[in-house]
Amino acid sequence: MLAEKAVNQGVAPVTYGQGDRPPRGDYASARADYTCDQNWSAYTPEEHALYRRLYERQAAQMRGLACDEFISAVQHLGTPERIPRFDELSQTLYKRTGWEVVAVPGLIPEEAFFALLAARRFPVTGWLRKPEEFDYIVEPDVFHDLFGHVPLLFDPVFADYMQAYGAGGLKASRLDACELLARLYWYTVEFGLIRTPQGVRAYGAGILSSAGELRYSVQSPEPSRVGFDLQRIMRTRYKIDSYQATYFVIDSFQQLFDATAPDFTPIYRAVRELPEIEAGAVLPGESLIAAE
Ligand code: PHE
Ligand code: CO
Description:
Distance between the termini: 45 Å
Number of domains: 1
Bound molecules: phenylalanine, cobalt (II) ion
Largest sheet: 4 strands, mixed
Shape: globular
Structural class: alpha/beta
């Protein structure tokens, strides 16, 4: 029944239903649209405590590294003492931007994912990682999905971008362009940086939910930081098993929204004619943005 790729949720592409690793979530109880009940009362006290440790580790290093929109919206997640109830969080979020969060068993097929985003419903994995996965997890869990993604859904422009991405995904499926579009998600929603008057900051969920990459992405001299360029992004491969070698930097969420508003049909066609760019490669004449 299952889902193929994780590329849309900021983790390594994983194939399920093969080999020795069964899908981790309970897909049997999911609805046709892949949503399911959060089953909040089934979380154990140990899981709530682990969520709190994850939350506090990230919150402690946000200042100066995460963008202000993220920092000011984190409070909407409620107390770090327990894993939020999706229904309560949805009520608050809906009032702000018309988005809801819905539970899913884990990674879901691309089209189901796009359809939920297009309907302003953000899929959040129900389960939490195990304590031994505190530092690193391959698949997105409730901490990555909630802490990383949900705060920016409180920002009206970013919220509209996410819906447009979902609609664009449904269209890309028809144009066989999901791989190109997935790079846009990867380099913005998951690993995006933004330029602010105070300096470069992170807004991507994969960065904001990572213990080490938050500092690395903003401050390390190692990776390339390139100004946002749609075609450049669609041509650029990405790393799934290490920190990114290239980050793309937007000037504002409005810039991101406006730059992605045109019809992608001719853009996909143009990009297919151009060579792919390796992760980390810098093109001749390309100027890089300095680390903080
Ligand atoms: N404008 C894109 C298209 O026509 C849709 C889109 C918007 C995709 C925003 C991604 C992000 O395909
Ligand atoms: Co993600």
